[in-house]
Amino acid sequence: MPISRRAFTLIELLVVIAIIAILIGLLLPAVQKVREAAARTKCQNKLKQLALGLHVAHDANGKFPAGNPTSFTTPLCTTNGGIQNLAGPPWTVTVLPYLEASARFEEFNKTQGFHGSIPDEPSWPQRTQNLALQQKPNAAFQCPSDPNSRPDIPNNNYFGVMGGGSGSGDPNWCAPPAQSGFPQPYFYWVIYSNGVLFQNSTVRLTDVTDGTTNTFLLGETRYQDPPSSASIYKSTWASAARQHGSNWNRLHNLAATQEAINAHPGGPSQSWETRAFGSFHQGGCHFARVDGSVSFVRDTIGLDAYRRLGQRADGQVAEVP
Q: In Å, how far from its chain's centre is CA 11?
């Protein structure tokens, strides 16, 4: 006798499909969590390497590199004159030899001048050699959780900490002059000098009197406007200080602990680039301390303590939670 084979009924088939869908639904969040955990670990390791590179640079030169070297000794927000004619290489470039990237460092012309906004306006001096190099991506500065971290985008997710504070009224703080068409007072791009990496900084470890464990050196950001954005003030991992007379003076690849972590949950924005740190990781972002250690700082940290962690010598020690 032939053996009878009972097929699935339609209802049974639908039940099996539903069970499979439920299992997939349960599995996907777990896979996403594993991927994000791996991305966070990779991001932390990248920040650690940058911090160690800065320490090697300190050992070689007796000081940390300048955050943004300029030809002006006064803060950019009080300076008039010059079209960024002597903006030097930012810390992101000067640290390259200490990241086993000497060949890339040597490609730059350190006396030619570096661009701030990328590309500059057509009427400005186009330092072709450095401009082209500044627009070449560098994976060492890219967080894997950032959608802009791609082989074709020269973004930077790791900024130097130039200081911290509440902003207006702080003696270590200033902002560029008011500009037509922007909110007044003009507090978009702030400039601090009470951290470790800032305009023309020459900070030594002995200058960090609040303690190297309790002072931020580098922080993670989501706010840089890379060349892929719609902003006209685009910048890259190698952008230098931008000096254009009394207009649009600003620092690049530096930020302050002024606004709370992830205070602005959106992506790149010139409004917050120098005023806040943040990340695409849930709940906070990574910071490297001056002692070289890296930790994930929650965005629930108290604002006063957070601001003090950006300062090297305010006499009020704030411990990293």
A: 55
Give φ, ψ of 159 to 5 degrees: -105, 150
Nearest to 141 by CA among 164, 152, 163, 157: 157
> How does pLDDT run across 37-84, given as a tens digit for each residue?
788 999 999 999 999 999 999 999 999 999 999 887 777 776 655 544
Q: Which residues pair with 160 in a beta bridge?
A: 218, 254
What residues contact residue 56 under an 8 Å CB cut-off, 6+ apart?
Answer: 98
- On the CB side of 278, CA atoms within 13 Å amount to 22
pLDDT at 120: 61
Amino acid at 214: N
The CA distance from 298 to 191, in Å, is 24
- DSSP-assigned beta bridge partners for residue 242: 250
Q: Give the residue extent of every domain in the chain.
A: 48-309
**What letter does residue 6 receive in the DSSP assignment?**
P
Cis (ω within 30 of 0) for the bond into 265?
no
Model pLDDT for residues 104-134, shown as the tens digit of each residue:
999 999 888 888 878 665 555 656 788 889 9
Residues of the chain with pLDDT under 70: 1-8, 27-34, 36, 78-86, 119-127, 169, 175-188, 230-232, 243-248, 318-321
Q: Is 59 exposed, middle or buried (0-12, 13-18, 19+ CB in 10 A)?
A: exposed
The pLDDT, as a whole number, for residue 184 is: 46
Contact 235, 116 (CB under 8 A): yes
